[in-house]
Amino acid sequence: MLGDVETNTVSPVFVGRAAELAALTDTLARAGAGEPQALLVGGEAGVGKTRLVEEFLDAACRREAVVAVGGCVEIGADGLPFAPFATALRALRRALPEELTEALAGQEGELARLLPELGEAERAANDEHGTARLFELTARLLERVSATRTVVLVLEDLHWADASTRHLLAYLFRTLRSGRLVVIATYRADDVHRRHPLRPLLAELDRLRTVRRIELDRFSRAEVGRQLTGILAVLPDATLVDDIFDRSDGNAFFVEELARSMECCGGDSSGLSDSLRDLLLVRVEALPEHAQRIARTLAEGGSTVEHPLLAAVAGLAEDELDEALRAAVGANLLLPAPDTDGYRFRHSLVREAVSDDLLPGERTRLNRRYAEALEADPSLVRADERAARLASYWYAAHDPAKALPAVLQAAVAARRRYAYSEQLRLLDRAMELWDDVPDEVRATLRPLDHAEVYPGCAGDHGTSPLRYLDLMAEAAVAARFGGDRERALALAKKALRILSTETEPLRAAWFWVQRSTLMQSLSRGDGWQELATAQDLVRGMQPSAVHAEVLAAAASWGALHRPGPETLTAADRAVEYAQLVGEESIELQARLTRGWLTIDAGGVEEGLAEMYGVRDRAEELHLVGVMSRASINLPSSLESTGRSQEAVTAADHGIDICHGHGLPDSEAWVRANQAQSYFSLGRWEESRAAVDAAAPLARSRKASGLVASRRTDLALARGDFEEAEEQLALNRRHLGLHDPQPQHLISPVRHAVILAAHQGRLFDARAAFEAQSETGLPPGTQRYSLPLLHAVASIEADARGLPAMEAGRPAILERVRRHLKQLPTLVPVWTAYGVLVEAELARAEGVDTPDHWRRTAEAFAPLQRPYELAQVRHRWAEAILVASGDRVPAAQLLRAAHTVASRLGARPLAESIELLAGRARVALAETGEEAAEDEASTEPGPAVDAIGSLGLTSREQEVHRLVAAGYTNRRIAEELYISPKTASVHVSNILAKLSVSSRGEAAALAHRLRLYATS
Question: 942 pLDDT exceeds 50?
Answer without folding.
Answer: no
